[in-house]
Amino acid sequence: MQQKVTSLKAFRALLIDKDNSPQWKFATIHEVPDTLVNSFFDEIWASESHPLKML
User: Fold this and answer.
1) In degrees, to the nearest 5, what angle opens at C-alpha 7 toward C-alphas 52 and 22?
2) pLDDT-based confidence at residue 50 (cuts at 50, 70, 90)
3) Residue 13 pLDDT > 80, yes or no?
4) Are 10 and 24 spatial neighbours (Cβ–Cβ below 8 Å)?
5) Where are the alpha helices (DSSP H) in the chain?
6) How many whole angstroms separate alpha carbon 15 and alpha carbon 22?
7) Predicted TM-score of the model (pTM)
């Protein structure tokens, strides 16, 4: 979870604050662990309680 927070803070610094001082945890994309990338695609809803299950 801490890694996601770090990423969000860096995005904010770059896109919202525009101070051009993001504090990235990883210097290159190749340093980002697969487990971190995959965590952004984890299911957050159980299939029976998904709000869009009827679509």
Assistant:
1) 140
2) confident
3) no
4) yes
5) 2-11, 34-39
6) 9
7) 0.46
Task: Determine the Cα–Cα distance for residues 24 and 37; give it in Å rounded to an integer.
Answer: 15
* Residue 43 CA, distance from chain mean position: 14
Token reading at 28: 């290159």
Between CA 8 and CA 17, with CA 14 as vertex, the angle to 5 degrees is 95
Contact yes or no for 23/13 (Cβ under 8 A):
yes
Q: State the burial class of residue 32 (Cβ atoms within 10 Å of its Cβ: 0-12, 13-18, 19+).
A: middle
> Is the Cβ–Cβ distance between 52 and 33 less than 8 Å?
no
Chain mean position to CA 26: 13
